[in-house]
Write a structure and sequence with these properties.
Helix content is 75%, strand content 0%.
Length: 162
Protein backbone atom coordinates (compact mmCIF):
# COMPACT_ATOMS: atom_id res chain seq x y z
CA UNK A 1 0.00 0.00 0.00
CA UNK A 2 1.37 3.41 -0.97
CA UNK A 3 1.49 6.00 1.78
CA UNK A 4 -0.18 9.31 1.11
CA UNK A 5 2.41 11.94 0.41
CA UNK A 6 1.58 15.56 1.14
CA UNK A 7 1.21 17.85 -1.81
CA UNK A 8 4.06 20.32 -2.24
CA UNK A 9 3.14 23.85 -1.19
CA UNK A 10 1.79 26.01 -3.98
CA UNK A 11 3.75 29.08 -4.97
CA UNK A 12 0.79 31.40 -4.63
CA UNK A 13 -2.22 29.85 -2.86
CA UNK A 14 -4.31 33.01 -3.26
CA UNK A 15 -3.82 32.95 -7.02
CA UNK A 16 -4.69 29.24 -7.05
CA UNK A 17 -7.90 29.97 -5.13
CA UNK A 18 -9.04 33.14 -6.88
CA UNK A 19 -7.83 32.85 -10.48
CA UNK A 20 -10.90 30.79 -11.52
CA UNK A 21 -13.17 33.51 -10.07
CA UNK A 22 -11.27 36.17 -12.02
CA UNK A 23 -11.54 34.13 -15.23
CA UNK A 24 -15.27 33.58 -14.61
CA UNK A 25 -15.76 37.29 -14.04
CA UNK A 26 -13.91 38.04 -17.28
CA UNK A 27 -16.13 35.60 -19.18
CA UNK A 28 -19.24 37.24 -17.76
CA UNK A 29 -17.91 40.69 -18.66
CA UNK A 30 -17.19 39.46 -22.18
CA UNK A 31 -20.69 38.08 -22.57
CA UNK A 32 -22.11 41.39 -21.35
CA UNK A 33 -21.39 43.10 -24.66
CA UNK A 34 -23.66 44.00 -27.55
CA UNK A 35 -22.39 40.91 -29.41
CA UNK A 36 -24.27 38.60 -27.05
CA UNK A 37 -27.67 40.30 -27.19
CA UNK A 38 -30.78 38.18 -27.80
CA UNK A 39 -30.85 39.44 -31.38
CA UNK A 40 -27.29 38.27 -31.99
CA UNK A 41 -27.56 34.88 -30.27
CA UNK A 42 -30.83 33.85 -31.86
CA UNK A 43 -29.38 32.63 -35.17
CA UNK A 44 -26.51 30.50 -33.81
CA UNK A 45 -28.66 29.02 -31.03
CA UNK A 46 -31.42 28.26 -33.53
CA UNK A 47 -28.95 26.60 -35.87
CA UNK A 48 -27.75 24.30 -33.06
CA UNK A 49 -31.28 23.66 -31.78
CA UNK A 50 -32.61 22.75 -35.21
CA UNK A 51 -29.56 20.57 -35.83
CA UNK A 52 -30.43 18.59 -32.71
CA UNK A 53 -34.23 18.61 -32.71
CA UNK A 54 -35.38 19.56 -36.20
CA UNK A 55 -37.19 22.56 -37.61
CA UNK A 56 -39.07 24.89 -35.28
CA UNK A 57 -41.52 27.62 -36.29
CA UNK A 58 -40.72 31.28 -35.71
CA UNK A 59 -43.56 31.52 -33.18
CA UNK A 60 -42.12 28.72 -31.07
CA UNK A 61 -38.51 29.79 -31.54
CA UNK A 62 -38.95 33.06 -29.62
CA UNK A 63 -40.09 31.19 -26.52
CA UNK A 64 -37.43 28.47 -26.88
CA UNK A 65 -34.69 31.06 -27.32
CA UNK A 66 -35.89 32.89 -24.21
CA UNK A 67 -35.67 29.70 -22.15
CA UNK A 68 -32.25 28.82 -23.56
CA UNK A 69 -30.93 32.23 -22.53
CA UNK A 70 -32.48 32.06 -19.05
CA UNK A 71 -31.17 28.53 -18.56
CA UNK A 72 -27.75 29.89 -19.49
CA UNK A 73 -28.08 32.49 -16.74
CA UNK A 74 -29.07 29.88 -14.16
CA UNK A 75 -26.44 27.29 -15.08
CA UNK A 76 -23.68 29.81 -15.76
CA UNK A 77 -24.08 31.53 -12.44
CA UNK A 78 -24.46 28.16 -10.74
CA UNK A 79 -20.98 27.26 -11.95
CA UNK A 80 -19.75 30.76 -11.15
CA UNK A 81 -21.10 30.40 -7.61
CA UNK A 82 -19.20 27.12 -7.34
CA UNK A 83 -15.99 28.92 -8.30
CA UNK A 84 -16.68 31.48 -5.57
CA UNK A 85 -17.37 28.69 -3.07
CA UNK A 86 -14.08 27.00 -3.95
CA UNK A 87 -12.19 30.28 -3.54
CA UNK A 88 -13.69 31.01 -0.13
CA UNK A 89 -13.27 27.39 0.96
CA UNK A 90 -9.55 27.52 0.13
CA UNK A 91 -9.03 31.05 1.47
CA UNK A 92 -10.81 30.61 4.80
CA UNK A 93 -9.81 27.13 5.97
CA UNK A 94 -11.35 27.54 9.39
CA UNK A 95 -14.76 28.80 8.35
CA UNK A 96 -17.91 26.72 8.09
CA UNK A 97 -19.37 25.64 4.79
CA UNK A 98 -22.53 27.72 5.17
CA UNK A 99 -20.44 30.84 5.78
CA UNK A 100 -18.40 30.16 2.62
CA UNK A 101 -21.58 29.37 0.66
CA UNK A 102 -23.20 32.63 1.78
CA UNK A 103 -20.10 34.57 0.71
CA UNK A 104 -20.13 32.71 -2.61
CA UNK A 105 -23.75 33.62 -3.33
CA UNK A 106 -23.04 37.20 -2.27
CA UNK A 107 -20.03 37.38 -4.61
CA UNK A 108 -21.97 35.90 -7.53
CA UNK A 109 -24.86 38.26 -6.77
CA UNK A 110 -22.60 41.32 -6.75
CA UNK A 111 -21.12 40.34 -10.12
CA UNK A 112 -24.62 39.65 -11.49
CA UNK A 113 -25.80 43.06 -10.26
CA UNK A 114 -22.80 44.82 -11.81
CA UNK A 115 -23.34 42.90 -15.05
CA UNK A 116 -27.02 43.87 -15.31
CA UNK A 117 -26.24 47.46 -14.35
CA UNK A 118 -23.66 47.60 -17.14
CA UNK A 119 -26.13 46.08 -19.63
CA UNK A 120 -28.64 48.80 -18.76
CA UNK A 121 -26.40 51.30 -20.58
CA UNK A 122 -25.98 49.25 -23.76
CA UNK A 123 -28.50 50.02 -26.52
CA UNK A 124 -28.92 46.38 -27.60
CA UNK A 125 -29.10 44.96 -24.05
CA UNK A 126 -31.43 45.32 -21.09
CA UNK A 127 -30.51 45.20 -17.44
CA UNK A 128 -33.04 43.28 -15.38
CA UNK A 129 -33.29 42.70 -11.65
CA UNK A 130 -35.10 39.46 -12.54
CA UNK A 131 -31.91 38.23 -14.20
CA UNK A 132 -29.98 39.02 -11.02
CA UNK A 133 -32.53 37.00 -9.05
CA UNK A 134 -32.22 34.13 -11.55
CA UNK A 135 -28.41 34.30 -11.37
CA UNK A 136 -28.45 34.22 -7.56
CA UNK A 137 -30.91 31.33 -7.66
CA UNK A 138 -28.49 29.38 -9.85
CA UNK A 139 -25.60 30.10 -7.50
CA UNK A 140 -27.67 29.20 -4.44
CA UNK A 141 -28.97 25.99 -6.02
CA UNK A 142 -25.47 24.72 -6.73
CA UNK A 143 -24.41 25.59 -3.17
CA UNK A 144 -27.33 23.50 -1.93
CA UNK A 145 -26.38 20.55 -4.17
CA UNK A 146 -22.78 20.72 -2.94
CA UNK A 147 -23.94 20.92 0.67
CA UNK A 148 -26.19 17.87 0.28
CA UNK A 149 -23.40 15.96 -1.48
CA UNK A 150 -20.90 16.77 1.27
CA UNK A 151 -23.44 16.03 3.98
CA UNK A 152 -24.06 12.56 2.56
CA UNK A 153 -20.67 11.54 1.17
CA UNK A 154 -18.04 13.69 2.93
CA UNK A 155 -19.40 14.77 6.32
CA UNK A 156 -15.92 15.19 7.83
CA UNK A 157 -15.02 17.78 5.20
CA UNK A 158 -18.22 19.62 6.00
CA UNK A 159 -17.55 19.62 9.76
CA UNK A 160 -14.11 21.22 9.74
CA UNK A 161 -13.35 23.03 12.98
CA UNK A 162 -13.74 26.74 13.56
Amino acid sequence: MVADTPHPPRRNPWLYAWLPVLIGTALIATSSTPYFSAKDTSTPFRWVYEGLFGHVSNDHWGRIHFYIRKTGHFVGYGVFGLLWLRAWWLSLPRSRFLHDAALAVLGAGLVASADEFHQHFLPSRTGSPWDVLLDCSGALSVQLVVYIFLRIFRPKKLARAL
